[in-house]
């Protein structure tokens, strides 16, 4: 057990596993580490840092979006976001997202608020579009492992805090290979998201590669995206929509079926319309800015987690400042009398301590890398 963190829980059993196998109702929690792992697998360009080093990269890739963020943080807080000590996306997001609700700071925080969302969206869209998951993707192989062990695809679901579309692409690859639910579906786009119906779906050009439209009556693998998605957006008449329109909780959330969405989508109807991504950062009090449609997504995800016998956490650390997500994990994992196994796949062994605290689990299976779990 060398290298594992020290624990205060005398009764907690941590098992560093060489091989793994569970047959049960399974929920797979996916974080940014899963996408990083996939990029390493296919030897793609490294994914952009979404915390430390983010603004240094932004200075090279999107200086136009960096400027309002940098100017705001320097003027209001004396912070140079390009200095190594301050170059962290999560901390800056927490500040800006708090300030937009502040009576005096709100107007000045509008420009950096929009720039942060656009920058994150563009960085992720550009980098993850190069990943084209197939049956050999880590996510597809994790699902295949559960099926091989006897778990019906009807009993598998994903809960994710990622914005990218790697889960959806992996599920489509499984469906094309005939690995499906009893209704011969796997992805069932866009009903997999559990957004309130009817779901507003855009019509991209015929040249775009799209997810096939499913049927709301069919069984599928749910994909609960608690922080939004690169293919979810709200429509606005300006590239720089007002903060009121961006924070309006009853705004319509639309979904594009593009498998490889572009960073800046526009639509031409009676007038030009700009798509603004619906992505929510892991910050304090994010519930105040969640569109109303997220209520159903979070509620259904909580029901799923509370009813799971096996929870697999792949690359998600559950940041300490993301109170809503931590509370969700605590409610679901501690109150779940049916939970038999908690599996963590993460190169950082300290994550075990986080989930030991959140779950009060008496037994945790730990894998330092996904290949070990899949072996």
Q: How is this fold's topology laid out?
A:
Blueprint: E1 13-16, E2 26-30, H1 32-41, H2 54-61, H3 63-77, H4 89-99, H5 106-128, H6 138-148, E3 156-160, H7 166-176, E4 200-201, E5 223-225, E6 228-236, H8 243-247, E7 254-255, E8 266-268, E9 272-279, H9 294-306, E10 310-314, H10 323-335, E11 341-345, H11 351-359, E12 363-367, H12 370-374
Parallel strand pairs: 1-12, 2-3, 2-10, 3-5, 4-7, 10-11, 11-12
Antiparallel strand pairs: 6-7, 6-9, 8-9
Report on this model:
Helix 10 links the parallel strand 10 and strand 11. The N terminus is likely disordered. The chain folds into two domains: 274 residues, no CATH class; 75 residues, no CATH class. It has twelve helices and twelve strands. It is globular and about 55 Å long. The strands form two sheets. The chain has a seven-stranded parallel β-sheet with strand order 1-12-11-10-2-3-5. It has a five-stranded mixed β-sheet with strand order 4-7-6-9-8. Helix 2 crosses helix 3, helix 3 runs antiparallel to helix 5 and helix 4 packs antiparallel against helix 5. The protein has 375 residues and is α/β, with parallel strands linked by helices. It starts with 12 loop residues before the first strand and ends with a helix.
Protein traits:
single chain, alpha/beta, 5-stranded mixed beta sheet, disordered N terminus, 7-stranded parallel beta sheet, 375 residues, globular
Name the poorly predicted regions. Answer: 1-11, 14-23
Give the rounded overall mean pLDDT: 86
Note the overall shape.
globular
Query: How much is the radius of gyration in Å?
Result: 20 Å
């Amino acid at each position: 057990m060398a290298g594992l963190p020290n624990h205060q829980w005398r009764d907690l059993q941590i098992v560093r596993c060489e091989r793994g196998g569970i047959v049960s109702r399974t929920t797979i929690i996916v974080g940014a580490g899963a996408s990083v792992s996939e990029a390493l697998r296919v030897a793609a360009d490294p994914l952009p840092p979404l915390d430390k080093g983010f603004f240094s990269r932004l200075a090279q890739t999107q200086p136009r979006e960096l400027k309002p963020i940098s100017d705001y943080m320097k003027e209001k807080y004396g912070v140079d976001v390009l200095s190594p000590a301050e170059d962290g996306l999560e901390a800056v997001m927490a500040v800006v997202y708090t300030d937009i609700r502040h009576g005096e700071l709100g107007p000045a925080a509008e420009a950096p608020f929009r720039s942060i969302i656009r920058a994150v969206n563009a960085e992720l869209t550009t980098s993850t579009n190069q990943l084209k998951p197939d049956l050999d993707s880590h996510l597809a192989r994790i699902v295949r492992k559960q099926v091989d062990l006897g778990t019906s695809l009807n009993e598998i679901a994903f809960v994710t805090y990622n914005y990218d579309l790697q889960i959806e692409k992996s599920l489509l690859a499984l469906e094309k290979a005939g690995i499906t639910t009893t209704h011969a579906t796997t992805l069932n786009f866009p009903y997999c998201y559990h957004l309130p119906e009817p779901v507003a779906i855009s019509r991209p050009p015929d040249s775009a590669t799209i997810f096939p439209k499913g049927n709301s009556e069919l069984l599928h693998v749910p994909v609960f995206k608690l922080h939004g998605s690169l293919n979810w957006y709200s429509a606005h008449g300006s590239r720089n929509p007002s903060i009121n329109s961006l924070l309006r909780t009853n705004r319509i959330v639309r979904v594009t079926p593009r498998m490889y969405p572009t960073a800046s989508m526009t639509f031409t109807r009676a007038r030009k319309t700009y798509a603004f991504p619906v992505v929510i950062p892991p910050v304090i009090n994010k519930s105040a800015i969640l569109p109303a449609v997220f209520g159903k997504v979070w509620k259904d995800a909580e029901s799923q987690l509370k009813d799971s016998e096996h929870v697999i956490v792949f690359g998600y650390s559950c940041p300490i400042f993301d109170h809503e997500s931590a509370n969700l994990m605590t409610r679901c994992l501690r109150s779940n009398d049916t939970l038999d196994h908690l599996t963590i796949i993460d190169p950082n062994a300290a994550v075990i301590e986080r989930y030991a605290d959140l779950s009060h689990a008496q037994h945790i299976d730990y894998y330092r890398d996904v290949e070990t779990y899949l072996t």
